[in-house]
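Q: What structure does this chain adopt?
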Amino acid sequence: MKRLVIIRHAKTEQQGYENDYARELLPRGVDDAHQIAASLREKGIVPNKMISSPATRAITTAQIFAEELGYPALKIKELRELYFNFTTQDFVELIRSTRNDVETLFIVGHNPFMHFVAQNLSTNYDGHMPTCSTVVLDFDIDKWKAVEARQGTLFMHLYPKQNRR
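A:
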């Protein structure tokens, strides 16, 4: 089995669209990222590999997840194409290029794309994807090269409002 964890970046400042790439997380976004990552840790879901968009809000989210999950932040692969330049096929090819010794792959990016790929890779995910949403998909395969659209099974979907009162 291979596990793919698709993460939308955490809550970010709403102004600054003229420099969208550099928008930073809000304090709430930082807290949300720590909370979701801690929930994954408690469930034993930790990355063997992390890939992130290098946009400030995405890479900061990835770094928080790495810190919480004991993954070396310097090993996060930054992939510029995840910043609004990927097609679903590009995303599938990225997954397929993953080494087979990686059991759990984390990818951090942006909406609407992350929501779109979560739906298209899953047989049973049809949720919404607010900031810091984390969709965990399981694939009943031995090699990442075998990943196909609509083949993953939703294991869990975490998002910050689940834990707010």
